[in-house]
Amino acid sequence: MNFFIISTILLFSYLLLDIIFDDYLWRRNIDFTIYLQKNTFQGEEVLFQFFSLVIQIPIYLGGLQFMFSSKKVECIIYIFLCMFGFTSNGLLKNAYHQPRPYWVEDEINGIGCNMEFGKPSGHAQTAVIIYYSYLFILYPSTFRWNKSKVSNKDDQSNNDEEPQFKCGQIILLNIFAFICIFLTGLSRVFLGVHTIGQVTLGWIYGIYIVLNYQLYCHQFLLNYIKNQLKIKNEEEVKFQRMSVSISAIFILSIVIDVTLLELNRRVFNQNENQINQWLFKITQCKHKDVGYYTKNHTNVLYNGCFLHGTLFSFIFSFIQGCFFSQGTFNQFEYSNSMEKKTLNFKICRLLFYLPMLLPLPLLLIQTYNIYLTCFLIFIPVVFFECWYLTLVYPKLLEKCKYQVKGEFLESNKDYYEQLSQN
Question: What are the TM regions of this chain, as residue ranges (predicted)?
Fold first, then answer.
């Protein structure tokens, strides 16, 4: 716990410094951003836009690895951590409710056109989480202090599937992750959507979350979920404690999210001229007709931050799905079974993921009512995706004869029938 205490003290120390030097960093950022935007080389804008967008790729890779590899628990935990990063950033942005530079400063060209509040930078915060947690969760040997823990695991398939990196490769991977994180933050300044202070604060929050999660939470959570997915006595209920804990955290996060939203709507942002100026800059940047983006639009200002704050619903609904399914997962058996299957068999299994695309068009509906969008469209879509994966998908595989031995959330009817007979 010493590291947690020290890191928390350092975090609060930096937060104090951030408050003291906030105006100074904003002024210095104006000059720096103008310099960057006026002194560009050919392809620089494309380069920075690339690093601003490429941050999503590791998350997609985590999803693909969930579908194709046997590291399903690791992939789930990785996506959970990313969702926690998005949720915490949405809550923090509404707590700070600080505008983006291109909304306020006429000299700064808005290239990125982000529409929600800017502090702390979501890209900077989640870049730290996304890049480094991808390495230490899915490829533990890339972090030195994980090696002893990985080598002691009984789950041999996990070790066999992970490539063995040499010391030089480990250093290069960590340097590559650092460069991606740094260029992601710099790109946000260049695009006019964040100040230096907003980016730095995002990095600080990201580092704090990643290091404390890795040191104190990851191994416990990994072992707990794997243990819950093992076959147990019929009387034992899987994911019971975790379901209750996650439910409490989900309710708390929604209460905080709603409270911050209402404070922004009724207390913090009462200058209509200022709000209209911000909305006008967003409208210009998006090349929309004046009046399209109002303060009730679900993707702007505090509304967009509120939606990000509800992404904890992904973790909640997935754990609830595991709780209701009461299924099992044997990584070693699953890996061996899939190795023996033909390519056609594996492709056919992928087709069972297609129904997850059905509700996605609902996210394009614009209601101009944030609560209607959130609780009747956004969260139900998230619930559909997670409950399809945990409750429907395994049943479809079983019914259509595409289930393999050791399947994720496999229902072990034969095992329980044997127990009842004995």
Answer: 46-68, 75-92, 124-143, 171-191, 203-222, 242-261, 300-324, 345-364, 370-393
